[in-house]
Amino acid sequence: MKDFNVKLKKVRQNKGLSQTELADIMSVKQQRISEYERGVVTPSLERLVEIAQILDVSLDELVEFKRIQNKLSKDLINKTK
Asked: What is the CATH number for 49?
C-alpha cells in the first residue's frame, strides 16, 4: 500500500477533518491516525474499509488497489518470460 499514508492525510484534510476528529469518529486515539499518516502502522482491512466509509471515498481511491494489482500482474508476466 505504497503512499497510503500520504493519500490518507490528503483525503482527510480535503474533507476538513483533523486527526483528532477522525480519531473520535473511529473511537481510536489521535496518535493512531498520526501513525497511519506517518506510515508507522498499517491499518487492518476492516479499518481501511471504515476509513474509506468515513471519508466518503472508495477503498480503491484510498489504497489504489488497481494500481497495485496492475503492477503485480506485470511483474508476474515478466517473471514467466
From this structure: 1.10.260.40
**Burial of residue 45, with CB atoms counted within 10 A of its CB: 0-12 exposed, 13-18 middle, 19 or more buried:** exposed
The series of mean pLDDT values per 10 residues for the chain, 81 residues long, is: 86 96 98 96 94 94 67 64 61
Overall domain count for the chain: 1
Residue type, 34: S
* Grid cell for residue 79: 517473471
Range of the structural domain that residue 51 is part of: 4-80
Q: What's the rounded Cα separation, in Å, for the pair 26 and 13? A: 16
